[in-house]
Amino acid sequence: MIPATNRSVGLPSAVLSVALLCFPLSPLNALNSNAGAIGASTTATQLPEFEVATVRPSDPNKGGMVGLYTYPGGRIQAGYCTLRTLLEYAFSIQPFQIEGGPHWINEEHFEITAIPPDSSAARRLMPASIKEPPNKEQRQMLQALLIDRFGLKYHFETKEGKVYWMVRKDKELRLTGAKDKTQLPFVNVNVYHDGVGNGEMVGQNTSMDFMAERLSRILGVPVIDKTGIAGTFDFHVPAPESANADITNATLEGLGQLGLKLRTMKGQVQVLIVDGASKPGPN
Question: What does the domain layout of the chain look like in residue ranges?
């Protein structure tokens, strides 16, 4: 998980909070292509490009923000991001949808500052929060940057595997209509630092699609919303008295308290295969 907070050394000794607001991607659709994000391998010349972009290795001893942020005027700022993380943002996909590539794509960290040209629609963007995800044009520009500066070569494959359907249980829903519909969606599941889940779940202004996408990231398995529930909601499920065995059990218990459950199914999942990549040279 890449937290959208100032970077600090080490993890809190008491609890690690899996905060899912900070990696806002488009809702995952494991059975169909994500228009504008998932498709055939392409080249940078077919994509819109940033006018100015700097890429440099991260200094692990220097503080700063972690993740990718969008600013007025379409500027993108990425801090302490691996190439794998940048691929997640650029193609609006989950970590488990990326395979292949050299080992360093999971280990080396980079800083990126990129500004779109004045002629682009992105130049006129005024996001309400820097945590808003990049839009389609910005993602395409980021794809072009990765192809150009990281020598990215890739293709997509469709593979069959396990997916979860998120469905309603035969019990009352414990979802309250969102108090502030202008707030960025937020879903949070707490786990102890040793990985033992406590089952507490918090959500603010979250739709079922958003929740399914965030649960996909927690569980490492595609979650598809099949609840048929419209609207956005706030909720809080307190931790149970006894700790759960792992994050999966914690998540399942929290969902059960909300009146939801996951059903194991088989489905088709789009996977990005990294055929090649190289570390970027000096700007």
Answer: 33-153, 159-268
